[in-house]
Design brief:
Length: 245
């Protein structure tokens, strides 16, 4: 990595708080190494059960955008963005348009590594999470192809696409069908800051109260599966999303 061309990490999520719950360790570990980190969130979370002081959906959306920004600051994210898609409705979105938004950003940011959900929808099997996985997967491929969206900037072939996956399930909830992991990150050093980032989501603190003990037992690691890369290769287990780059 040179001073002129730092490594870059792009994280694509569905709702404010996904960035810290699902990817916070990866984002903080990268930022500590001088890797530029970017976060894109598709919705502002207006369909959340926990609503804080918000009276209307629009007010909740405004609050959650502010919380997302505060969380990203804790996580060391260089640039963050919340798109204008409707929470809980991503499965009905125009697929090509959603993917094109990501193609445009991948070509602009030029990340080395992209991380997002797997198609299982993560531990709560949320359809929005699955759709973000599908949008991101298509955009990762299409951003590298000159025939796809030629007006959206020069092509960019990122080095790796990873899906977040899990080594455990939520008790009492339907189990997802998670991908086997190829990367295990030791996040023990940053796990308290990961909780600090979640506490920035003040409207969602009842979730923290409900699940903090459960997560504290399992927050020392994050698991990811290598989903795509430009170079044919066998699967191998590593402890670094950027190993060899």
């Amino acid at each position: 990595m040179s001073d002129q061309s730092p490594l870059k990490l792009l994280c694509v999520t569905a709702h404010p708080d996904d960035e810290c719950f699902g990817f916070g360790g990866a984002l903080m570990l990268a930022a500590e190494r001088g890797i530029e980190t970017y976060a894109i969130c598709f919705t502002d979370g207006q369909a959340a059960t926990n609503r804080g002081t918000a009276v209307t959906p629009a007010e909740l959306g405004r609050l959650r955008r502010e919380e997302f920004a505060a969380s990203c600051k804790v996580l060391g994210v260089k640039r963050h963005e919340v798109l204008d898609y409707q929470d809980g409705q991503l499965e009905f979105a125009d697929f090509s348009k959603a993917a094109a938004l990501l193609v445009e950003r991948i070509r602009a940011y030029r990340p080395n590594v992209v991380i997002t959900f797997g198609g299982d929808g993560a531990m709560n099997t949320h359809a929005d999470h699955s759709m973000v996985s599908f949008f991101t997967t298509a955009a990762f491929q299409w951003a590298a192809q000159a025939k796809r969206f030629p007006t959206l900037g020069p092509i960019h072939s990122a080095d790796r696409l990873y899906y977040a996956t899990s080594s455990f399930f939520f008790p009492g909830r339907p189990a997802p069908l998670p991908a086997p992991w190829t990367v295990t990150l030791d996040t023990s050093r940053v796990q308290q800051r990961k909780f600090e980032a979640f506490r920035a989501h003040t409207t969602q603190l009842p979730l923290m109260v409900r699940f903090q003990g459960f997560f504290e037992q399992r927050a020392s690691q994050e698991h990811y599966m290598l989903a795509a890369t430009p170079n044919p290769q066998p699967a191998a287990h590593t402890t670094d999303l950027f190993a060899g780059l």
